[in-house]
Amino acid sequence: MAPLPVGGSFADITLRLPEREEPYEVLARTASEVARRLARPDHQVGPGAVVVTGLSAHFDFAAAREFHERLFRSVWTEFRDYAGIPGPEEAYRIKTGTIADGAIPVELYGSQWSFKDLHVDREVLLFSHLYGPVTGFTGGELLLVDIRPYLRGRGLGFDDAFAWSNEATEGSKPVLREAHCGPALAECGIDLGPLGPDAVVFVNNLPDAGILHGVRPVEVTDVRGFRREYHRCSAKGVSR
How many Å apart are CA 51 and CA 54, to the nearest integer? Predict the structure, then answer.
């Protein structure tokens, strides 16, 4: 993982599972701490993203994914309170699944690869990723940007900085224009590196949070051995 900044929006982004305690025994405490850091009701509380590390000391791939899902559900419950998300539990849906880069159905998403450019997902309120297996490639670093201070500092509006993607099934997404990607990452972002099975990354995807995410392009170096999978959990409102 790339070195984390000492200051800035993402200074408090990492949270390590205790090595000498069973993760399920501290799940509630971990979830509450993750949710607190994710919430940004005044645009200043918490980094808006959290990387929970230390999973590989306790879990294999299958067990890590099970823990990830349990943790996400607990974080979502706490996050709703911290972020002030209204409505009953049944007004929201949690979706889980594993995505294999290079094998995503083109007819559904227009590409075999997961979205790369810095963007905000539509409809999703909170999501988390657990990567692995990951082998046979270079690149794939996960990028986060706290876009609001960048826009304020440069006097930019939404239309100045963003364009819209063109996707058949999930609708278009706001995507940071190429001219702003480098400066925004340098001034208000973080490169988390190519994450693996030791870490879960959570991202507050609420529109008022202002957290963009993206992935650097992947270059396959071992065609036979290539694998880039990630277990994804997300929460969104139920369509009426």
Answer: 10
Element (H, E) at 108: helix 106-109
Rounded distance between C-alpha atoms, residue 7 and residue 91, angstroms: 37
pLDDT digits (tens, 9 = 90+) for 122-150: 889 999 999 999 999 999 999 999 999 99
Indicate the SS3 state at residue 38: helix
Peptide bond just before 133 cis, omega within 30 deg: yes
3-class DSSP string for 156-220: CCHHHHEEECCCCCCCCCEEECHHHHHHHHHHHEEECCCCCCCEEEEEECCCCCCEEEEECCEEE
Q: Which single residue is written with the structure tokens 């409505």?
A: 87
Strands (DSSP E) along 4-78, which ranges? 14-16, 49-53
pLDDT tens digits along 191-234? 999 999 999 999 999 988 999 999 999 999 999 999 999 999 99
The amino acid occupying position 114 is S
What CA–CA distances, in Å, run from 64 to 61, 69, 145? 5, 9, 27
**Which residue carries 């599972």 as its tokens?**
17
